[in-house]
Every structure is written in C-alpha cells, then in structure tokens.
C-alpha cells in the first residue's frame, strides 16, 4: 500500500492559474524527511512544466507549523554516506521552489524554522500571520543553513542583519521578521493563506509571459553589475514585446476590456 502523500496541489480561480502547494505531514509538523523532500522536488518540477500555472502559493495544512525544518530524528541514524545522499535530495527540493519560473508566495503560520524558513525564503514573497515564529537555528545543532538561508536572507536584508539571525540562532516573531525585512507582509493570525492567495490572483491576472520574463530578468540580474543587469532586462523586454501577450494587452487597453492572455 502506498504511503499517503505529504503534500497536495490545489488549483484556484477561473482557469486554475493559481496553484496552492500544501505541506501536510502533521505527525512531524512538516519536518523535511528524505521522502518529503522527494515529493517537493517532484511537485515543483510538475509546476515548472505546466504552462497554465501563473503563480504558486506554498501553505501548510496545520496551524501550528508552516515547517519546522529538517527531520532531525531521521538524520540522527544516518551514516556519513547517507547524510551526503540526503543532502543532495533536500538540496533539489529547495531549488525546486527557488527555480519556479512563475512567482511563488509563502503563507507562514506557526513555526517556520530552519529549512522551513528557507522554503519561505525560496519564494518571491512571504506573507506571515502575526502569530508566526521564524528562525534559522542551525548553528545551535552543529550545522549551517543548507537550504539557501545564508544566501537568500543576505540578499533580502543585508549582511549584518542576516548575521544577527544566523549567528545567534534566535527565534523571531513575525513582527520582528517583518521589521527586519525577512517577511514582506504581516497579517492577522490565521489569514496568511487567504492574503497570499489574493496576491497570487492579482499576479495571475497579468500577462503570464511578461511576469515570467520579469522574474527571470530579476533573478539573472541580481548577481551582476548594473550594466550587465540592464542588458538582461533588455533581453527580457525583447522576448516580451513581440509576444502574443503584448499584442493582446495593447488591444485590450485600446478597446477598454479585460485582456485574454494567450500566454505566448
């Protein structure tokens, strides 16, 4: 008998352009085991290949935790070789979220610790309920953040602020994380999912070609100097300006109607 799935994909809205990826491993507060990581990798690969998808929202099925990070109980019994194999598997899972070609949002309620916070950081936007708790506590158990935390948080909030989070392993309230810049939007407890889906719907109403190309330009340009970044932007502009979406967008504006994006 197959084990029950630890995540679920749900389409929202007319056309199903917004997809909710729900983490659902209640017995471990969504801790990331080897099998769970493999499910995340497979799900994000399907989403990345689906041209209908315009935005992804990562949520949890459980109020107490978004994700508490690595499954340390599983890791405790690993040999060094197993640890290295597990590392490769989990790294693919985080990259699966990070490399989604469409905007990704995380809706954080409860605990987002270690790898859980890194899943959120792998998304483009983070919406957190006021009752959430976030942390990168890895140095407290003898490792370093390995799901992108050292790089993604630094790019969001800068060196010294990231150092204060990682070196101390401290836990932050959602309000503190928002003030730091690690959370983009702070909402009432229990409403992060609703708000993230609302923002995703706003995104999905825009040209899918333009949004995808804008995200790619931002991602590729982030690690370059300004001159190189502007060339990347020009490439994205050219790839969009001669698309069916651009023609439809201009026509819809002139005719004062809602665009019907061809998505190509």
UniProtKB/TrEMBL annotation:
PANTHER family: (7AS)-7A-METHYL-1,5-DIOXO-2,3,5,6,7,7A-HEXAHYDRO-1H-INDENE-CARBOXYL-COA HYDROLASE, ENOYL-COA HYDRATASE-RELATED. Keywords: Lipid metabolism, Lyase. It comes from the Bacteria. This is enoyl-CoA hydratase. Belongs to the enoyl-CoA hydratase/isomerase family. It catalyses: a (3S)-3-hydroxyacyl-CoA = a (2E)-enoyl-CoA + H2O; a 4-saturated-(3S)-3-hydroxyacyl-CoA = a (3E)-enoyl-CoA + H2O. InterPro entries: ClpP/crotonase-like_dom_sf, Enoyl-CoA_hyd/isom_CS, Enoyl-CoA_hydra/iso, Enoyl-CoA_hydra_C. Pfam families: ECH_1 (PF00378). The keyword Chloroplast does not apply. GO terms for biological process: fatty acid beta-oxidation. GO terms for molecular function: enoyl-CoA hydratase activity. The keyword Ubl conjugation does not apply. SUPFAM superfamilies: ClpP/crotonase. Its EC number is 4.2.1.17.
């Amino acid at each position: 008998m197959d084990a029950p799935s630890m995540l679920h994909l749900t389409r929202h809205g007319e056309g199903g352009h917004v997809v909710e990826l729900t983490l659902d491993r209640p017995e471990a507060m969504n801790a990331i085991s080897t099998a769970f990581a493999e499910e995340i990798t497979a799900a994000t690969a399907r989403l990345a290949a689906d041209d209908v998808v315009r935005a992804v929202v990562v949520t949890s099925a459980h109020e107490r935790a978004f994700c508490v990070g690595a499954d340390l109980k599983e890791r405790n019994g690993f040999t060094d070789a197993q640890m290295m194999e597990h590392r490769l598997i989990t790294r693919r899972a985080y990259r699966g979220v990070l490399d989604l070609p469409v905007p990704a949002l995380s809706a954080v309620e409860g605990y987002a610790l270690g790898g859980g916070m890194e899943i959120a950081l792998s998304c483009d936007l983070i919406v957190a309920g006021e009752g959430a708790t976030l942390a990168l506590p890895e140095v407290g158990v003898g490792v370093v953040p390995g799901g992108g935390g050292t790089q993604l948080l630094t790019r969001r909030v800068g060196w010294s602020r990231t150092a204060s989070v990682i070196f101390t392993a401290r836990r932050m309230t959602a309000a503190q994380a928002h003030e730091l810049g690690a959370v983009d939007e702070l909402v009432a407890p229990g409403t992060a999912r609703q708000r993230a889906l609302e923002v995703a719907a706003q995104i999905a109403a825009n040209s899918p070609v333009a949004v995808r190309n804008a995200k790619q330009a931002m991602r590729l340009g982030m690690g370059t100097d300004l001159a190189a970044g502007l060339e990347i932007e020009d490439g994205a502009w050219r790839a969009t300006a001669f698309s069916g979406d651009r023609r439809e967008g201009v026509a819809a504006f002139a005719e004062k109607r809602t665009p019907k994006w061809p998505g190509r």
